[in-house]
Write a structure and sequence with these properties.
46% helix, 496 residues, OB fold (Dihydrolipoamide Acetyltransferase, E2P), elongated, nine-stranded mixed beta sheet, alpha/beta, five-stranded mixed beta barrel
Length: 496
């Protein structure tokens, strides 16, 4: 690195560079001493192997002679592979098979040396720190001893942000270092690094109403819960849905069914289940029920700061995927407990709402819930969050009231129905989706409106039982709609 560039850096940045150089006693050095040591150690690097994008700033700033030798070994391996290919071509053209074996032997010996150097390929979720550097997280998006250091120069070059999934080549930590370091960036969120450099910012993208439907009907006659949701509260890509649930109303089972159905019918959709302040056995149960979806969790025995960090990492991850034009579904259980955690973490504003809730504690949960949107430029974030009611806590009721008008889809579960063992315990009169006309066909809308008008004066239990009984006697929702239309037509002919 050039002398004027080093002189422009703060002493904290110089110490970070010295740490990567494995400079002994760098913590006690003054700026002048650090500059002298770093300028003495600066060396030029060889060209990288073809097909791999190196971080030249990291090479100049952060690599010791040992790391440079590792890079040379990587180049030697690539050269050996080229030699092997050339040898095979010569063999096919009638050349000597002995030559091919020689090439293969050279490759194997170089591979053995390469493996001894132990530079593994890693893939993790990036979390940025205040100093401009970052770490790749692996287990549950949280800090661990396996984390990989990412230099500020790599972050600037590839426009990396918190929540990016980085795949690259790393090196093991040197003596005195706690973490390994990332040497090469291979992919960012499954795409080439160049895509991340040109991607738009999430906040600059245009939110619109959901217009592409996530149909939950699986074709099974007895899957009444999913068929019922499809009729009364359809879900689209980019939906911001809230599931209002009293205790023991079946919300966890409903979430599990939704997750399994979306995972089965829409394999291209990125599924993230976020469990905040939940029971450990439910976390295990959810993990085992999903095939490819991620389950990110913070159990009730963790600190509130742990709940908050997990939620913020999930939000950042979803935003990065949406920036790449991908569709994400987040199932949150529950937004009430997330708001409780923020209430314990945020600094007191001096004002308190009913139930002991600080008004400032609602900003971050609303930001999380408000991130759900369909983006005009492509990509979407769908969030289905549960809200607890009838828990006996005034704070829970206040939290629900604050979130009541923020969603564009509501699904109400009824405690009285669940007590009478009527499942799914969905209150059809209270449940619905805004602008459902963008998601449903004209025939479906007409049939659902007929159904709602006919049952407007009936009780909640009677309505739900009637609909569930009719669903059980039809193969799918298309047949159910035809039954409703025929019964309506028969009523009109009878009246005339």
């Amino acid at each position: 690195m050039e002398q004027h560039v080093l002189k422009s850096k703060k002493i904290s940045e110089l110490r970070e560079i010295a740490k990567t150089f494995s400079v002994e006693g760098y913590e006690k050095m003054k700026k002048a001493q650090l500059l002298e040591v770093l300028l003495t150690n600066g060396t030029e690097m060889q060209e990288p192997p073809e097909g791999i994008v190196p971080d030249s700033d990291l090479v100049r700033e952060a690599e010791t002679e040992e790391a440079q030798r590792e890079m040379a070994e990587c180049q030697a391996l690539a050269q050996a592979e080229n030699e092997l290919r050339q040898g095979e071509e010569l063999s096919e053209a009638g050349g000597s098979s002995t030559g091919t074996r020689d090439y293969r032997g050279a490759r194997e010996s170089r591979e053995n040396r390469y493996n001894k150097e132990d530079r593994p390929e890693v893939e993790g979720i990036l979390e940025l720190a205040e100093g401009g550097f970052g770490f790749l997280r692996f287990s549950n998006f949280l800090t661990s001893d396996q984390d990989i250091y990412v230099s500020p120069s790599q972050i600037r070059r590839f426009n990396l942000k918190t929540g990016d999934k980085i795949k690259g080549i790393s090196r093991r930590p040197n003596e005195g270092e706690r973490f390994g370091a990332l040497l090469y960036v291979l992919t960012v969120n499954g795409d080439e690094p160049g895509v991340a450099m040109k991607r738009p910012d999430f906040d600059d993208l245009t939110p619109i109403f959901p217009k592409e439907r996530l149909s939950l009907e699986t074709g099974a006659r007895n899957d009444t819960a999913m068929r019922l949701i499809d009729l009364v509260a359809p879900i689209g890509k980019g939906q911001r849905g809230i599931i209002v649930a009293p205790p023991k109303a079946g919300k966890t089972i409903l979430l599990k069914k939704i997750a399994h159905t979306i995972e089965m019918k829409y394999p291209d959709v990125e599924m993230i289940v976020l469990l905040v302040d939940e029971r450990p056995e439910e976390v295990t149960d959810m993990k085992r029920s999903l095939v490819s979806g991620e389950v990110i969790y913070s159990t009730f025995d963790e600190m509130p700061q742990h709940h908050v960090k997990v939620a913020e990492m999930v939000l950042a991850r979803a935003q990065r995927l949406a920036e790449h034009g991908k569709d994400v579904v987040i199932l949150l259980d529950s937004i009430t407990r997330l708001a409780r955690a923020y209430n314990l973490v945020v600094p007191a504003s001096g004002r308190t709402l009913s139930g002991g809730l600080d008004p400032g504690a609602l900003h971050k949960p609303k930001k999380f819930f408000g991130a759900a949107r369909k983006l005009e430029e492509g990509g979407s974030i769908t969030i289905l969050a549960t809200a607890l009611v009838e828990t006996g806590s005034r704070m829970d009721d206040v939290i629900f009231e604050e979130f009541k008008g923020t969603g564009n889809m509501e699904l109400h579960l009824d405690r009285k129905l669940s007590e009478k063992r009527i499942f799914p315990a969905i209150n059809l009169n209270k449940s619905g989706t805004r602008r459902e006309d963008l998601l449903m066909s004209n025939e479906e809308i007409e049939a659902v409106w007929m159904m709602r008008r006919a049952m407007a004066n009936m009780g909640t239990q009677e309505v739900t039982e009637t609909i569930i009984d009719n669903l059980a006697h039809t193969r799918n929702n298309a047949d159910f709609i035809q039954v409703i239309k025929k019964s309506k037509l028969a009523e009109q002919q009878k009246d005339s």
